Amino acid sequence: MSDLDEIRRKRMAELQRQQAMAAQSQQEQAVQQAQQQEAAMEFEAQKRAIMAQILTQEARDRLANLRLTKPELVNNIEIQLIQSAQGGSLRGKVTDEQLKVLLRNIAGQKRDIKITRK
Questions:
Q1: Distance CA 22, CA 17 (A)
Q2: Distance, CA of 80 to CA of 65 (rounded, Å)
Q3: Per-residue confidence of the chain (118 residues) as pLDDT tens digits?
């Protein structure tokens, strides 16, 4: 019976080791996920600060409203505007009218899909 007890003891120790490793792995994943969330929040805060510098209040309001329906489009526009500002091609703040023109240009780039039935 001592052989059986020894096998049980080894198996129990192995299971405990595996469980400890799994718990450590989960903890590392949670820490990594928290760091990613913090970095994303910091990036968003920086982006908002830059947008406040380069857009008028009306233009920011328009983007905020548009974000509710087309968040990907707004992100693309914000990135474009930030790159333009960093490149030095923006003179002064972007007004609501200038933003409308930019939106029309981007919306005009979409492909029109027409379906005809016979």
A1: 9
A2: 18
A3: 688 889 999 999 999 999 999 999 999 999 999 999 999 999 989 998 999 999 999 999 999 999 999 999 899 889 989 998 888 888 888 899 999 988 888 877 666 678 888 8
